[in-house]
Amino acid sequence: MSQASQRSVPFGVTIAIPNWNHEYVLPRSIRSALEAVRVLHDHGVSAEVLVVDDGSRDGSVTLLRQLEALYFDQGLRVVLHTHNSGRPAATRNLILAHASYQYIVYLDADNELLPANLYHFYRAAQQTAAAVVYGNIIRRDMNDQTINLISNESVQDRLFQSNYIDALALIDRTQLIDLGGYSEQPVIDASEDWELYLHYAVNGRLVIFVPLVFGFYYILPLSMTDEHTPAEVHGNRHRYLQRVYDQLGLRHDSLMNTRHQRYHPDLGFI
Question: Which is the CATH superfamily of the domain at 4-269?
Answer without folding.
Answer: Spore Coat Polysaccharide Biosynthesis Protein SpsA; Chain A (3.90.550.10)
